[in-house]
Fold this sequence. Notes:
Organism: Paenibacillus lemnae
Pfam families: GFO_IDH_MocA, GFO_IDH_MocA_C
Helix content: 25-40%
InterPro entries: Gfo/Idh/MocA-like_OxRdtase_C, Gfo/Idh/MocA-like_OxRdtase_N, Gfo/Idh/MocA_Oxidoreductases, NAD(P)-bd_dom_sf
Oligomer: single chain
Shape: globular
Family: Belongs to the Gfo/Idh/MocA family.
Number of domains: 2
GO molecular function: nucleotide binding
CATH architecture of the largest domain: 2-Layer Sandwich
Amino acid sequence: MNIAIIGCGTMGMTYAYNLGKMPGVNVSGTADLLKERAQDAASASGGKAYTDWEQMLDAESPETVAVCVPTYLHKEFVIKLARRGIHIICEKPAALTLEDAREMKQICEEQGVRLFIGHVVRFFPSYADAIHKVRSGKIGTAQMAHFKRHGSYPQGSELWYHDPAKSGGVIMDLMIHDIDYACWLFGDVESVYASVTDPSISGIEYAQITLKFQSGAIANLTGFWGYPGPFTTQFEITGDQGLIRYDSNQVQSLDLKTLAGLSKSQDAVQVPSSPALHDPYYGEVKHFIECIQSGEEPIVSISDACRAVEVALACKQSAQTGQPVPMGGTAS
């Protein structure tokens, strides 16, 4: 697979490191407006550095391009690449509006190219393990979940995150990870209710979301930009026969407690995931490349990505109005 990278910031470098060590993959080029960043990504991946992405495409003829530019530029690059007949792996969220996300999906389908959106949380071992345990009935019927995602504000060259018109803010950029995962867990959302602090007043951006699903399940999400500690993710999924907990600050990967275990007066069953040889971003992009080669459907589809955008936008509307927002259906 001949692949190139456009955008060599934090995520572009992550792709460069992973693609550079992936068997059967040749990173032919890395492009960024900042020459030094393009060169750093080229050094990590074995590709050639460019400051002009179109020149890179003309010179290297990649089959697939990883789009790691800021969110507000996703649509522009995805559509231009699709019209060149190039498959696309694009960072999340798909776009800042549902209309743009749907247009990206439509044009890629019309051009006969594959579009993948990097909702990488589905590839984190503990999150994937939790889904497997829920679907195998380990905790009975899952009815309630709580997700937390806390981190510092992006710094340095990533200050575009601070402009909601470019990043979508904490809900669209950070919390969309857990929005997508909650939808993967529980299905379509019936209504949302959200609140968020004003970072211009508080100096932090903290959001709380309640998602009510058509299945009757409820998920509560919190997201925090400006957290003073290490990046932290947590979740708890509760069923009628037990619960699953995860905390990234703990050594153990997963904590599974079941009513059956309690009835036998046993301690909670600790089920750690095996240490992974590669990080989840490696597994994600490897999966997408395999889907291009085989024609199979990915773990996270473009319709899933559109749904996550739709739910995130409804949450932002609720936070602005202070009222619950009903969902109109799926975003496929």
